[in-house]
Design brief:
This is CRISPR-associated endonuclease Cas9 alpha-helical lobe domain-containing protein. The chain is an alpha+beta fold and about 950 residues long. About 40% of the residues lie in helices and about 15% in strands. The protein starts with a helix and ends with a helix.
Length: about 950
């Protein structure tokens, strides 16, 4: 924290509060500066809210403008609290007036250090040291301090499990005893600088298919090849070299030793000859004046076809191509990816780095590249190092020994063009003669196969060797090679490559510790922990509830001839009309008024008159509170005969007789699917009015796709105007010119519509600081806790109940039995197929094999000719391809517009009753056979196995 603020040890206030480790606790001391903690917290929240766009909005967003002004007001008070003199105060204020400084200060002084969402203390300290370092030494990539999630959630959980396993293995035996003795412990962490592009290659880590939406221009062209081609085989630095060829270097235009740190964006990389890079440019920042005429001619040949290079004209050309209307944004908009720029803009963007040091466009490009680097994960190893450091720091904090624990980072390269990289060393060792058992070739990386487990151990060993050679007797390792010893192979008298260093360090596969399988805890284990009193956040690391709350409304009720009917009220031409729920027909919600009158007495419903129409309308929050209390009582003991339980049971209803309905906000583009929903609802007329209005206003024929309106690009402005007018009830002035936006509007126009639970509905109680209680419905994610396990969450939490009337009768019963997956087994044909019907259909059962597993039923080896003749009835001369036939068959259609009549009903007749209730099917076709796979409910497959066992 001291380094972050730019203070030396002598400037620390003597009366500062001491922490548990005996050091100055500046966080407690700075709390005396009124408003400082709040401003720091606001800065942290601003980072989380705006993310990578924070810098772009500092001068346009009113909240950020006010926050910046507040920070400037606080800095003098902070100087006064730290008792700085005038000269020191001036430097202090100039250094620390950034929102980023204040956000980082909050994380270091008062932030929660648990988890990746909060900056780990190691990273914050590391960043502070790097910010204060003005030496010319090469700097590693800064550890990010943005308090946002920078990595995929599923991958994060997986790495978190691994980090805790690793930390636990070394904690009890090594670290804990040393810390308890009072020793200072520094842990070395070696990171391989991955060439892994996180966003585009996430599917590799997760073992899933590549997302179609992540395709990028030239994605199959290697990055190095693109950089080589961009140079046109001409060295930018060496005026004597005419052709580079393949024997060149990929150079950083802004060198790693600069004050900006390492900028690994493609825009900052340029291909140069080895002489030009290593001897001429070396470690300097160059300008256009230092570049060769031949190189500039190759880059700007359209502007200077005859070779008369004018560097001032090139600078004006770069400014013309990149300068936008605002000083903080480019002409092409926000920068996301170098490959996404046009070829002309790529040339201008890269060469803007050669503009004079004080040029604002150069500063903007560098700032953009720095900003972008913060928003990318620098490899999974980088993230794992942070998790490890954070986990071990938390363990040390529990002992009060966090001040005795430090971390030292070593980074090595995996760039194949770098001769001191793990890739180069591995390639070298694979061609060397090693002792028996140390041969690396069996573990070589194959592009078509996943990396062998021991191959990762080899990479770690090589990273360790490179770190030892690069930092002899330095840092936390304090290791050096013996005299005349090298990690690179030596050539013996016979001309054979030998390597003894690797053989001394490497751990053979047979010497490795037993394999530790890292996987999440089973659900039934989590349920047991909840029932034993553990807090939900201690047991479940994933989001338990779905993201959005589910709306709920209670029907209006009307007394008709002494009976109570449910429905809703609509106002038409100033007249109130009660619409009876169509599902009730002549059946009332209650045959008398006893229950509703009792609810009125309790203040849960009110008898109101709307335009002279008498209806009973719910006081929604009061009703939900009443229901919550009844469902909470069932946690102790169900009391179904109590008045409250009976009234709540009536309100919650049974099946179609529910006296409430769910709501959700849906995009207006989903009007076709909303209008297709079964039965009338309170929102039907409004959606119908919107849809018919758009039909009349649209200038093109209405197009629909999967229940959604397709709005053509030419109609976007018309659509936006119509939606705004409909929702805000603003009359559309047809004579006004409609503004045609340059891009599709980002706003999603929505209206309330009938909703459907997507998980286990639960009623949540929230209590404000003033004691006010509010209730709302949230869906429990069934992928985290299923219907059988969800009761455990309600039992554990006093503010959660399951929104289910059966609870009033049965109470909360959580299933704690381990889930058993049904492995693939072959079962008798008679267990899945009706033998009699198969005989009538002349289906030969002898070659057929039936296999059941989990929720799948595979019927294999059906004769293809029989299948075509009996289940795909041709009525068209032109033969359709099999993939199209199978698609039609599996879709469940009975007629495909005259192309092929589908005799799927005939196939259903061949199945036993239990197998008919499929949730979908797929076909696998070979030259002579067809296999059908049915997706069933797991309970159905288990039932089939049980029946088979009983028989």
């Amino acid at each position: 924290m001291r380094v972050l603020l730019g203070l030396n040890q002598q400037q620390l206030p003597k009366e500062a509060v001491l922490g548990l480790d005996g050091k100055v606790d500046l966080g407690a001391y700075l709390l005396q500066v009124k408003g400082l903690k709040q401003a720091c917290d606001d800065a942290r929240k601003a980072q989380k809210q705006w993310g990578t766009e924070l810098n772009d909005n500092l001068t346009t967003d009113n909240t950020l403008i006010k926050l910046t002004a507040k920070i400037k007001e606080l800095l003098p008070a902070l100087c006064q609290r730290l008792k700085l003199d005038k000269s020191s105060s001036s430097a202090f204020i100039e250094r620390n007036q950034s929102i980023y400084h204040f956000a980082q200060l909050y994380q270091m002084a008062w932030g929660d250090r648990n988890g990746f969402a909060s900056t780990c203390p190691v990273c914050a300290t590391d960043n502070a040291v790097r910010m204060a370092d003005n030496s010319g030494q090469a700097q590693a990539v800064r550890l990010s301090t943005l308090s946002m999630r920078l990595i995929d959630g599923g991958l994060k959980r997986h790495l978190n499990h691994q980090a805790h396993h690793i930390a636990n293995r070394i904690w009890d035996k090594l670290l804990k005893p040393a810390l308890l003795k009072g020793d200072k412990v520094t842990i070395p962490l070696i990171l391989e600088q991955n060439r892994f592009d996180f966003a585009e290659n996430l599917h590799v880590l997760k073992g899933t298919l590549r997302s179609k939406g992540l395709s990028a221009p030239d994605q199959f062209q290697p990055k190095v090849e693109r950089i080589k081609q961009a140079s046109h085989n001409v060295c930018p630095y060496d005026k004597q070299t005419t052709k580079i060829g393949d024997d060149g270097d990929v150079d950083h235009i802004i060198p790693r030793s600069s004050r900006y740190g390492t900028l690994n964006d493609e825009a900052n990389l340029i291909y140069a000859s080895r002489t030009g890079n290593r001897q001429i440019k070396a470690n300097r920042e160059l300008t256009l004046a230092n570049l060769s005429d031949a190189y500039l001619q190759s880059q700007f040949n359209k502007e200077f076809p005859e070779g008369n290079i004018d560097r001032d004209e090139i600078q004006r050309l770069i400014e013309q191509r990149l300068t936008g209307k605002r000083a903080d944004i480019f002409s092409f908009g926000r920068y996301h990816q170098f490959r996404a720029l046009s070829p002309e803009n790529q040339v201008a963007f890269r060469h803007a780095l050669f503009l004079p040091a004080d040029h604002p466009l150069r500063a903007l490009v560098i700032s953009t590249l720095q900003h972008r680097s913060k928003n990318r994960v620098n490899g999974t190893q980088r993230f794992m190092a942070q998790l490890l450091a954070d986990t071990l720091w938390q363990k040390a904090k529990e002992l009060g020994k966090q001040g005795n624990l430090a971390f030292d980072y070593f980074e090595v390269s995996s760039d194949p063009n770098n001769e001191n990289s793990t890739v180069a060393l591995r390639r070298h060792l694979e061609s060397s003669t090693l002792a028996v058992g140390f041969d690396l070739r069996p573990f070589a990386k194959q592009t078509t196969q996943s990396q062998h487990g021991y191959s990762h151990v080899i990479d770690a060993t090589l990273a360790f060797m490179l770190s030892v050679q690069a930092h002899p007797n330095e840092g936390a390792m304090k290791i050096q090679l013996a005299e005349n010893e090298s990690i690179w192979s030596r050539i013996d008298d016979d001309g054979t490559y030998l390597n003894t260093a690797f053989e001394q360090v490497a751990v053979l596969p047979k010497e490795l510790s037993p394999l530790v399988e890292v996987k999440p805890r089973a659900t039934h284990t989590k349920v047991k922990q909840l029932l034993d009193g553990a807090k939900p956040h201690q047991v479940v690391s994933r989001r338990i509830f779905k993201k959005n709350a589910l709306g709920i409304e209670f029907y209006d009720f009307k007394d008709i001839a002494g009976q109570l009917f449910r429905g809703w009220v609509t106002i038409d031409n100033g007249q109130a009309k009660f619409t009876k729920h169509s599902g009730d027909k002549s059946k009332p919600a209650d045959k008398n008024l006893d229950k509703i009158q009792r609810l009125v007495e309790l203040g849960l419903f009110r008898l109101q008159r709307l335009q002279g129409l008498a209806i009973y309308r719910a006081n929604k929050q009061a009703v939900l509170g009443y229901i919550f209390d009844a469902l909470s009582q069932a946690k102790v003991a169900p009391q179904p005969n109590q008045e409250q339980s009976k009234l709540v049971s009536w309100l919650l209803g049974k099946g179609a007789g529910k006296l409430y309905y769910y709501t959700a906000r849906k995009e207006l583009k989903k009007a076709p699917s909303v209008l297709k929903s079964r039965g009338p609802n309170p929102f039907q007329e409004e959606w119908l009015s919107f849809y018919t209005g758009w039909e009349q206003r649209s200038q093109l024929p209405i197009k629909k796709n999967k229940g959604m309106l397709e709005i053509a690009s030419d109609e976007q402005a018309n659509w936006q105007t119509y939606c705004e007018a409909f929702l805000n009830r603003i009359p559309i002035k047809e004579n006004d010119q409609v503004f045609q936006p340059a891009h599709t509007a980002l706003r999603d126009f929505t209206m309330r519509a009938p909703g459907t639970p997507s998980g286990v509905p639960s009623l949540i109680r929230k209590i404000s600081g003033e004691g006010t209680k509010r209730y709302h419905i949230m869906d429990i994610n069934t992928r985290v806790l299923g219907e059988e396990q969800a009761p455990a969450l309600a039992i554990t939490s006093a503010n959660v109940v399951l929104f289910d009337r059966n609870i009033l009768q049965k109470g909360y019963m959580a299933d704690i039995t381990p889930k058993q997956t049904l492995e693939a087994i072959e079962i008798p044909i008679e267990a899945a197929l009706n033998s009699k019907n198969c005989q009538v259909a002349e289906l030969d059962l002898k070659p057929i094999k039936v296999v059941i597993e989990a929720n799948k039923l595979h019927i294999n080896n059906i004769e293809r000719q029989w299948f075509e003749s009996n289940l795909l009835l041709k009525n068209e001369a032109v033969e359709k391809p099999w993939w199209e036939k199978s698609k039609i068959f599996c879709s469940g259609q009975t007629n495909a517009e005259g192309d092929h009549s589908i005799a799927q009903d005939s196939f259903k007749k061949l199945l036993k009753r239990s197998a008919k209730h499929d949730k979908g099917m797929t076909l696998k076709v070979t030259d002579e056979t067809v296999s059908v796979t049915l997706t069933l409910d797991k309970k159905v497959t288990q039932k089939i196995v049980e029946n088979m066992t009983q028989d």
